[in-house]
Structures are given as structure tokens and as C-alpha cells.
């Protein structure tokens, strides 16, 4: 039963991580572009490195959480533990995302290149 | 028997919270484009990117919270107990969703006020007469 739970869990986590990563990759580019004063090639390089780092951290964390899993006896426990573990991962993702946005906000506030016309 | 009804409760809870989150986020971030437009002084691309990032964050934190608190610790024995437990859970989640909604609205209004204060001052300088 546990193996099934791990497979479903990793599948869900992988899908969420990749989708969210792509959203960040597309929409975060313009912010880096503003911070680096329109240096396109450097921006794309940094953006790609950030994406890879994000995947590594998240999937690694998701795989690490498996070691804390309880033994599963029934379908109900399977459903419950998959949902709760996915919830934890997604909450962590959200907190990291908000910290990132705050960092971008403070940097742009400091040098005023992105918000000012 | 106890585990069967718990499972039913989970099966009812999950679609409802996902639908609620989707509906609230969809409504909020469809209408927040106007605010973003004001905040970034008409720069459409950066306004839309910020909107999308906020939307993703909203989904992540709310759905994560909903999944995280799904567990019902006591065994549910009859239908009445299940209804009461479910309404308490979904109602509590609705309140937290509402608080997040108002927090986001506060951020939008604050950003709009700050942007206005930053972009407008030149036009309000009084004319010097004489």
C-alpha cells in the first residue's frame, strides 16, 4: 500500500512543481530583466539557472518527506496521507514564493529601476 | 463502519474546497488587473506578470492549507455527525479564504495609493501667481 501512495504522491508533486515552475519562469523573467537593466542574454541564463535550482530544491524536499511517512492500512489512510503530505509541500512552496516576491519587492524598492518610468 | 464515513467526508470535502478556491481566485484575479494597471502606471507586461505571480501564490497557499487541515481525527459514526463535522471544516476554511481575499485586496489598495503618491505629485503643484 505504501508503494502505491509514494507513486501517486510523487506524480502529483512532480506535476505541481513543474507547472508552477513554468509559471514562475515565464512571469519572473521581466522582473530580472528590469533588475539587470535590459541585459537579455544574462537574464535568460540566470532565469534558467533559477528554474533548475527551484526544481532541485522542491523535488528533493518532496522525496525527502517520504521518509517520514506512516504505514498505510486502508484506502482511507492512503487518500488522507497523500492529501496531507501534498498540502505540506504546497504550503512550503507558497511560503518560498512569497519570500521570493518580498525579496524582489525590496530590491526594486532599493534601486527604483523597475517601478519608476 | 467508522472508517467508511470518514472516507465519504473526505471525498465530499476535497472537491468543495478546490471549487471554492478556484472560484474565489478566478474572481479576484480577473478584477485585480485594473489595480495592477494603476500600480504599474500602465505598463501592461509587468502588470500581468505580477498578477499571475500573485494568483499562483494565492492558489498555492490556500490549496495547501486546505489539504493540510483535511484530517478528521475522530471516527464519524452517523450522517448527522458527518454533516456537522463537514460544515465546521468547510465553514472554517471559507473564513480563512475570506481573510486571505481581504488581505490581497488591502495589498492592492495600498499599492495603488503608493503608486498614485509617487506618480502624481508634479501635477498638483500649485500655480505661482503674480
Structural summary, described in words:
The complex is a heterodimer of chains A (117) and B (130). Chain A has one domain. Chain A contains three helices and no strands. Chain A has helices at residues 2-35, 40-65, 75-111. Chain B has one domain. Chain B is elongated and about 80 Å long. Chain B is mostly helical. In chain B, α1 (2-39) runs antiparallel to α2 and α1 runs parallel beside α3. The model of chain B has no long low-confidence stretch (mean pLDDT 86). Classes of the chains: A mainly alpha (117), B mainly alpha (130). Chain A binds chain B through residues 20, 23-24, 26-31, 34, 74-76, 79-80, 83-84, 86-95, 97-98, 101, 114-117, and chain B through 3, 6-7, 10-11, 14, 40-41, 45-46, 48-50, 52-54, 56-57, 60-61, 63-71, 115, 118-119. Chain B: It comes from Chitinophaga pinensis. Chain B: The chain crosses the membrane at residues 6-25, 46-70, 90-109. Chain B: This is Integral membrane protein. Chain B: Keywords: Membrane, Transmembrane, Transmembrane helix.
Search tags:
heterodimer; A: 117 residues; mainly alpha; 83% helix; B: 130 residues; 3 helices; 0% strand; elongated; membrane (chain B); transmembrane (chain B); transmembrane helix (chain B)
Which sheet architecture does the biggest sheet of chain B show?
none
Radius of gyration of chain B: 22 Å
SS elements, strand count of chain A: 0
The computed structural class of chain B is mainly alpha
Share of residues in strands of chain B:
under 5%
| Percentage of residues assigned to helices of chain A | over 70%
Amino acid at each position: 500500500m505504501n508503494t502505491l501512495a509514494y507513486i501517486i504522491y510523487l506524480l502529483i508533486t512532480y506535476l505541481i512543481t513543474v507547472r508552477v515552475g513554468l509559471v514562475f519562469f515565464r512571469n519572473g523573467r521581466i522582473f530580472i530583466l528590469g533588475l539587470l537593466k535590459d541585459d537579455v542574454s544574462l537574464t535568460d541564463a540566470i532565469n534558467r539557472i533559477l528554474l533548475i535550482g527551484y526544481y532541485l530544491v522542491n523535488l528533493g524536499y518532496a522525496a525527502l518527506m517520504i521518509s517520514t511517512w506512516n504505514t498505510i492500512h486502508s484506502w482511507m489512510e492512503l487518500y488522507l496521507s497523500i492529501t496531507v503530505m501534498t498540502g505540506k509541500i504546497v504550503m512550503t512552496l507558497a511560503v518560498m514564493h512569497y519570500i521570493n516576491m518580498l525579496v524582489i519587492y525590496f530590491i526594486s524598492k532599493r534601486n527604483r529601476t523597475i517601478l519608476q518610468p | 463502519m467508522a472508517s467508511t464515513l470518514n472516507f465519504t467526508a473526505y471525498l465530499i470535502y476535497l472537491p468543495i474546497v478546490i471549487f471554492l478556491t478556484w472560484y474565489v481566485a478566478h474572481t479576484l484575479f480577473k478584477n485585480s488587473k485594473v489595480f495592477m494597471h494603476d500600480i504599474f502606471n500602465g505598463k501592461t507586461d509587468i502588470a500581468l506578470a505580477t498578477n499571475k505571480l500573485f494568483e499562483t501564490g494565492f492558489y498555492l497557499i490556500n490549496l495547501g492549507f486546505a489539504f493540510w487541515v483535511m484530517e478528521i481525527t475522530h471516527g464519524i459514526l452517523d450522517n448527522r455527525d458527518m454533516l456537522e463535522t463537514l460544515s465546521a471544516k468547510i465553514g472554517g476554511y471559507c473564513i480563512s479564504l475570506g481573510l486571505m481575499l481581504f488581505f490581497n485586496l488591502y495589498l492592492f489598495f495600498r499599492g495603488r495609493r503608493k503608486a498614485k503618491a509617487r506618480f502624481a505629485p508634479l501635477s498638483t503643484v500649485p500655480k505661482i501667481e503674480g
